[in-house]
């Protein structure tokens, strides 16, 4: 079979205005970024149409190094829905350069279920990530300048909370010292970088409901505390307008197309292990304005992305998904069944049965939100019919819909069965009203512990002295009603990435609390979880090149 990028090149793309007009978007409102990419203004969102649209979430079992293919399933399901005569649009996150050049090589789907042009989407796209990085670091520069210029007046901050960001995996920048050298270089202080996907500005862009709301949230960004313990914000700097200008175009959702020329919105890109893991609310609402069925995904496993999709995104945006699809693979199940990665392509009935416990735990969690759930089995070439049937029977026994997804090799035709199952389930057993894991009135600790105990399986939650100090400050600021966003490893229900399957009766240690006052959420950092990844021993960048004018190595 051809590589992803070879398949992408073989597709004859439609001009983006054609795609937009076919979706019902007025031609004159399309702002082209070249021939095949456009931005669509947020003013076109129609709340009456949003209410009538069927929102479908795609999530997954706990991911493994073998991969799951959640984005491929999301795009494939959308193609399948269109194949059976439904008006369906997919809404996804933008890829980050960090993992593209680190481990993944790309994040625009795969095979014959991709969003295109995949090379541009995976690289600089419409510049949203660059704008977010610039806006974030502009705040850093303005803050440092403010401290430098007002030092003689006796002004200073006891605690500086604002770090810099970069859309590159770079472990060397996690902890640095700035302002070294002569006094004219600024104030010498400890600082550091997070990856852009963890930036509060990224979260703000994805949670904002309008340009005005974006500006309001930027004003509220907490930068640090004065020596008399008063919060110091972007509003105090007086630069919220300037920062909002840097994001003026980025707030508008990006329109592209699938391998079958159907519309796709790709906008925003927070990771689900260190941030809230969902595409922008505005892109989701835009897709729901023009699609009767909208498929969206949440990052990593359901314990991370789906939990935050419901408890943060849906809670704040008033969204009500009609169905959740959970993706599983034989290789992933076998790894959760404690089969070594070297042997996961070999038949192993016992490994599959043991790994199904991970799937079952996620299904129970999803149902606790009131969601109707179906399983999308993402098929790989090495899968055997006997083992697929084993998973099918297990799902039937537990009353969970099951369908095989072959969109990777067959495009929309390969997802027709899944699409029919999704439509049938929505029509016959739509999800109930969302039941959140915690209440807004709960304390920060109660919120963390409800997620940790109910969804992860922890029997104890502990807090570092620094975390407890931050929680006290949150109570003092009167923002304990904000939802919580737990940053932890994606490879386990616990904080230990090596603890596969279903972790039980473990301790979850909260090392740090990050106050996202503008994004209006509290980030709880578990254990050694890092918000700036490093590169692997053999980064994907070694395989990315330009050959005869064509990009190679993106996948």
Give structural attributes.
3 domains, alpha/beta, 4-stranded mixed β-sheet, Formyltetrahydrofolate synthetase, domain 3, 12-stranded mixed β-sheet, 25 strands, Rossmann fold, Domain 2, N(10)-formyltetrahydrofolate synthetase, single chain, 555 residues
Please, could you describe this protein's structure?
The protein is an alpha/beta fold and 555 residues long. It has three domains: 4-11 and 26-119 and 257-428, P-loop containing nucleotide triphosphate hydrolases (Rossmann fold); 128-246, Domain 2, N(10)-formyltetrahydrofolate synthetase, CATH 3.30.1510; 444-526, Formyltetrahydrofolate synthetase, domain 3, CATH 3.10.410.10. The strands form six sheets. Strands 1, 2, 3, 4, 5, 6, 14, 15, 16, 17, 18 and 19 form a twelve-stranded mixed beta sheet that branches. Strands 20-22-23-21 form a four-stranded mixed beta sheet. It has a three-stranded antiparallel beta sheet with strand order 7-12-13. β24 and β25 form a beta hairpin. The chain starts with a helix and ends with a strand. The model has no long low-confidence stretch (mean pLDDT 96).
What secondary-structure arrangement, pairings included, does this model have?
Layout: H1 4-10, H2 16-23, E1 31-32, E2 38-39, H3 47-52, E3 54-60, H4 70-83, E4 88-92, H5 97-102, E5 109-110, E6 113-116, H6 118-122, H7 128-149, E7 157-160, E8 164-166, E9 176-178, E10 189-191, E11 193-195, H8 200-207, H9 211-219, E12 222-226, E13 231-233, H10 234-237, H11 240-246, E14 254-258, E15 263-266, H12 281-290, E16 293-297, H13 302-317, E17 323-328, H14 330-336, H15 349-368, E18 373-378, H16 385-397, E19 401-405, H17 407-410, H18 416-428, H19 444-456, E20 458-463, H20 465-477, E21 484-487, E22 506-516, E23 521-526, E24 545-547, E25 550-552
Parallel strand pairs: 3-16, 3-17, 4-15, 4-16, 8-11, 17-18, 18-19, 20-22, 21-23
Antiparallel strand pairs: 1-2, 2-14, 5-6, 6-14, 7-12, 9-10, 12-13, 14-15, 22-23, 24-25
Helix pairs in contact: 4-18, 7-8, 9-11, 14-15, 15-16
């Amino acid at each position: 079979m051809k590589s992803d990028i070879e398949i992408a090149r073989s597709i004859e793309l439609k001009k983006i205005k054609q795609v937009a007009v076919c979706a019902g978007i007025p031609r004159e409102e399309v702002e082209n970024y070249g021939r095949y990419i456009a931005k669509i203004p947020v003013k076109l969102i129609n709340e009456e149409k949003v209410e009538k649209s069927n929102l479908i979430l795609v999530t997954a079992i706990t991911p493994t190094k073998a991969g799951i293919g959640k984005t491929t399933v999301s795009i494939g399901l959308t193609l399948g829905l269109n194949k059976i005569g439904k008006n369906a649009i997919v809404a996804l996150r933008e890829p980050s350069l960090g993992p593209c050049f680190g481990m993944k090589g790309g994040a625009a789907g795969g095979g014959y279920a991709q969003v295109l042009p995949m090379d541009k989407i995976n690289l600089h796209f419409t510049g949203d990530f660059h704008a977010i990085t610039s806006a974030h670091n502009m705040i850093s520069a303005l803050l440092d300048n403010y401290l430098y210029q007002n030092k003689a007046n006796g002004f200073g901050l006891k605690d500086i909370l604002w770090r810099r960001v970069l859309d590159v995996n770079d472990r060397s920048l996690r902890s640095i010292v700035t302002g070294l050298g002569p006094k004219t270089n600024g104030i010498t202080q400890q600082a550091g970088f997070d990856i852009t996907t963890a930036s509060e500005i990224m979260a703000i862009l994805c949670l904002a409901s309008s340009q005005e709301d974006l500006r309001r949230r930027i004003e509220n960004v907490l930068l640090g505390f004065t020596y008399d313990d008063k919060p110091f914000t972007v509003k105090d700097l007086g630069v919220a307008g300037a920062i909002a200008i840097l994001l003026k175009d980025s707030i508008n959702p990006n329109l592209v197309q699938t391998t079958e020329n159907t519309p796709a919105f790709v906008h925003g890109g927070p990771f689900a292990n260190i941030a809230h893991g969902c595409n922008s609310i505005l892109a989701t609402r835009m897709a729901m304005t023009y699609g009767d069925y909208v498929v969206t995904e949440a990052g990593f496993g359901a314990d991370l992305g789906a939990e935050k999709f419901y408890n943060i995104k849906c809670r704040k945006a008033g969204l009500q998904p009609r169905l959740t699809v959970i993706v599983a693979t034989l290789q992933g199940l076998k790894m959760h069944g404690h089969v070594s990665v070297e042997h996961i392509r070999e038949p192993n009935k016992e490994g599959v049965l043991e790994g199904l416990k991970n799937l079952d735990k996620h299904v129970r969690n999803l149902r606790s939100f009131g969601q109707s759930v179906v399983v999308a089995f993402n098929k790989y070439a090495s899968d055997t019919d006997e083992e697929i049937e084993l998973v099918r029977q297990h799902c039937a026994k537990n009353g969970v819909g099951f369908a095989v997804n072959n969109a990777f090799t067959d495009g929309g035709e390969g997802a027709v069965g899944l699409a029919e199952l999704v439509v049938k389930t929505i029509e016959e057993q739509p999800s109930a009203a969302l039941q959140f894991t915690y209440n807004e009135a709960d304390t920060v600790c109660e919120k963390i512990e409800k997620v940790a105990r109910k969804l992860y399986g922890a029997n104890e939650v502990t807090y570092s002295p620094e975390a407890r100090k931050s929680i006290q400050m949150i109570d003092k600021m009167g923002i304990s009603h904000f939802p919580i966003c737990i940053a932890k490893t994606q490879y386990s229900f616990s904080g230990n990435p090596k603890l596969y399957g279903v972790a039980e009766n473990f301790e979850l240690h909260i090392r740090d609390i990050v106050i996202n006052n503008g994004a209006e959420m509290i980030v709880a950092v578990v254990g050694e979880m890092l918000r700036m990844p490093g590169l692997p021993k053999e980064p994907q960048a070694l395989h990315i090149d330009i050959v005869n004018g064509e990009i190679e190595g993106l996948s």
